[in-house]
Design a protein that fits this description.
This protein folds into two domains: 58 residues, no CATH class; 77 residues. The chain is built from six helices and no strands. The protein is globular and about 45 Å long. With 171 residues, the chain is mainly α.
């Protein structure tokens, strides 16, 4: 069992990430091995909170950083760890995501060296792009489990540039 403070932190993370119930339960099952956050042990808590951090949750500290970080410096070990975690998470939804050619293509699309991020600023860009991709793949997986159609059903119909009326057939 985890402490009440850790339990509160998980619920704060869920609220700030605006996780739907199904996605939250999926994270608990997959990363914590439990159905309820009350059943988490310390190792499960760490894996769940690491996943939530990778999705964009920031633990607020009572202290502030005094020296600004140089964005042109090498990526921090923490950034590299988050990137590795996000690649692992993405590989659960996208076959071949761990393959070198897939990663190279991903980095090239971000206009980075095929080796990956070389600076802290580039690492931040990779982290944000991977978070968006993981989030998109999680939504697709949840929709397919619930039997919802995949595609552009939530997108408004395409409009004609001249009349502003919806075009036949949509996007």
């Amino acid at each position: 069992m985890i402490s009440a403070q850790k339990l509160k932190l998980i619920h704060v993370a869920r609220r700030e990430l605006e996780l739907p119930e199904e996605a939250y339960r999926e994270i608990l099952r997959h990363h914590g091995g439990v159905e309820s956050s009350k059943d988490l042990d310390d190792d499960g808590f760490k894996r769940v909170i690491d996943c939530m951090k990778a999705l964009g949750f920031w633990v607020r500290r009572s202290w502030e950083q005094t020296a600004p970080r140089d964005p042109d410096a090498l990526p921090t070990p923490g950034q590299l760890k988050v990137i590795g975690h996000l690649w692992d998470h993405l590989s659960e939804y996208v076959g071949g995501a761990k393959a070198i050619p897939f990663r190279r293509g991903f980095y090239v699309k971000l206009k980075l060296a095929a080796l990956g991020p070389q600076t802290r600023a580039q690492a931040n860009s990779v982290i944000e792009a991977l978070k968006q991709r993981v989030s998109r793949e999680m939504r697709k997986a949840a929709a397919s489990r619930n039997g919802a159609p995949l595609g552009n059903e939530n997108r408004p119909p395409a409009r004609s540039p001249t009349s502003g009326q919806p075009t036949p057939g949509g996007p």
